Amino acid sequence: MTSVYLAAVKGHLDCVKRLKDLGAKLDVKAKNGKTPLDVAIENGFTEVADWLCANDILYVYKRLVQEKNTASTENEYLNLAQQFRAMNGYENSAELAKECDSHYCTLKERREKEEKAKEQHRNKTIAISGICGLIFGWITDYRIGGTVDSAIVGTMLSTMLSIIVVAIVVQYEKCKPCS
Which residues span the domain enclosing 137? Predict the structure, then answer.
């Protein structure tokens, strides 16, 4: 049994902290196969167990690996990469940090590409509706003779045409196969 193990069995959190500060390992198993974390939990010393969980590098490493396996967002991968780097090369944490960085970059590029495509679609729609409005307004103005009434009618008609064109473009974009 180690000193950390004995301190955990008795629930002496201050001793466990001090021993760690002095360089004691927190994840060493006793002859019975149990770690200080195991005995702290068994004896109901939740404060000691919580502190050991937060500071036991093996426990933290395993938790991070589990989180990596369920991560799905940019922020999750970014945070995991930072935490793996903070482990200073423990086990294969450096490789896992690179892997998380790679997932982060892939998700970021995908998001930026989607945002760019949406912006291009929006700009196309605005341009088409604007051109149609101008043409329709010019035709209406030419046919009615350029009066104030013709300007109102032209504006109304060009607005209606713009709405129709936007609806057509939106429907077309929805039906387009993915590229």
Answer: 113-175
